[in-house]
Amino acid sequence: MSAKNGAKLFKQRCDQCHTVEAGGKHKTGPNLNGLIGRKTGQQPGFQYTDANKKKGITWSPETLDVYLTNPKKYIPGTKMVFAGLKKKKDRNDLIAYLVKSTK
Q: Alpha-carbon distance 64 to 74, whole Å?
């Protein structure tokens, strides 16, 4: 896993809708700071869909791997338009970056 490569993927695929830094603003998607260990649909100040609020899982590297493969399949009704990352290596790198950057 390469957090460095994950940072590049984040910039290419996620940065337009998400921020990761503490106190970062919400964009189309929520700020991801504190993501690991938080339940779906729980970032204060962001308007989530009922699907996200009711999913009830806790974000971890394992749940992110499934989610990032196909977000709309994992959480039907999510408003996230991202199609997913099909390559396991890309998901692993992005997750490594998210674990590091959202603490």
A: 10
CA Rg value for the chain: 12
> Which amino acid does the sequence have at 26?
H
Give the C-alpha separation, 62 to 37, whole Å: 11
Cβ atoms of 61 and 95 within 8 Å: the answer is yes
State the pTM of this model: 0.95
**Helices and strands (H, E) in the chain, number of each type:** 5, 0
**Torsion-angle region of residue 42: left (phi > 0), alpha (psi -120 to 50) or beta?**
alpha
List, for residues 11-54, the tens digit of each pLDDT value.
999 999 999 999 999 999 999 999 999 999 999 999 999 999 99
Q: In angstroms, how far is the first alpha carbon of the chain from the final one?
A: 18
Whether 57 and 40 have beta carbons less than 8 Å apart is answered as: yes
